[in-house]
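Case 396 in the screening queue. Each case pairs one protein sequence with one candidate compound; here the compound is iron/sulfur cluster. For every case the pipeline is the same: read the inputs, emit a complex structure as tokens, and attach any notable structural observations.

Predict complex for case 396.
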Amino acid sequence: MKRLPLGTEPVLASDFRKEGAETIPPRSIVGLSLDEITERLAEIGVPEKQCKMRSKQIWQWIYLKGVKSFEEMKNLPRKLKSQLEEAFGFARPQIIEALISKDGTRKWLMKFPDGNEVETVFIPEKDRGTLCISSQVGCTLTCRFCHTGTQRLVRNLSAEEIIMQFMVARDDIGEWDKEDAGRLVTTIVLMGMGEPLYNFDNVSRAMKTLMDDNGINLGRRRITLSTSGVVPEIYRCGEELGVNLAISLHAVNDKTRSEIMPINKKYPIADLLKACKDYAGLRNSRKITFEYVMIKDVNDSADDARELVRLLRSYNIPAKVNLIPFNPWPGSDYERSSGNRVKRFSEIIFDSGISAPIRSTRGEDILAACGQLKSVSEKRRKSEILKEKKAAELSR
Ligand code: SAH
Ligand code: SF4
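Case 396 output:
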């Protein structure tokens, strides 16, 4: 593991507060839609006729050029720049830690002005790269195999905070000036901390910003939303966003699934698979990914594999399966299935004509692998507390 020099100087929202002004930072311009910016410009006195043109210019500076201050927006008049500085915040989150794994995986720990922290992971591959974005601080669901689910403190991330994870990655990897073809962050997966469908309003707003063709212009096929199965929101996600869908299935019968994923008691497998079938129907049979964490002696038998095939067939869902060997974390109840078991499971599904690759574990040395997010910030906090205690003792 090596520590990266931080490419992004943290700029705190507080830096934008005017002396003597109220302590609440002005609302960030990141997270507003193009139309909302246009409206807000009118409100701060920009002549009506110019608002649309100006908001587009601002949008392009933010999302095409990646500038970090209004001052850098060269084609805006000085007066407008100072009006914008008065009216809006425009701050990158503070980067507490930027780690790079021996396999090239990167992880950033970001801190927002209220002290909450989230992790974002970048997984480079040969000719593409995937950014794994968090949607919540922690998660209210308590899947038994997942480290994030053990975090007590939970809050939704704002649209701004979700978008910022992308911006920080692009800053740090140095991608703003590159042509599309040379860029490494090619796809986004909402597979970091949190349940994106429990924060759908903000996730949707953020994804629409990233998809907007005046700016970052990420196609909806380059975005995958992963959910533990919040059935009613799956329908909404299909209608509003139409991004790729990944389902954390992890078991083939309600008994086991409810045991390891309590949300199954509310939305059992039959309801979940019906929603998946309808989702695929909405989008011309685009394949739905079923994630399946391989846990020793819990869900990894050959019979489980055959039942999985039967289920996907009986609902007639265009599907691919992603097998994830369980990643242990300190205090976890389970063990990873043996290599042979995982292989056998994968073969049975492949033999039925459904693709079922085994996901290689990336970034394990920096605790960036699936289900491991949370630990570093907790550890850091504990070590900080110790440090503070020692300092307090010394100064006594
Ligand atoms: N809350 C969403 C998004 C998180 S995605 C969801 O559950 O789908 C993270 C993926 O990693 C999910 O498929 C999750 O089930 C899986 N995961 C969680 N803990 C894991 C662990 N310990 N080992 C392997 N995968 C895990
Ligand atoms: Fe939350 Fe997903 Fe982890 Fe379950 S697997 S606790 S839904 S983040």
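Case 396 observations:
- Residues 139, 141-143, 146, 148-149, 194-195, 228, 248 surround iron/sulfur cluster (ligand 2) (CB under 6 Å).
- The two ends are 37 Å apart (CA to CA).
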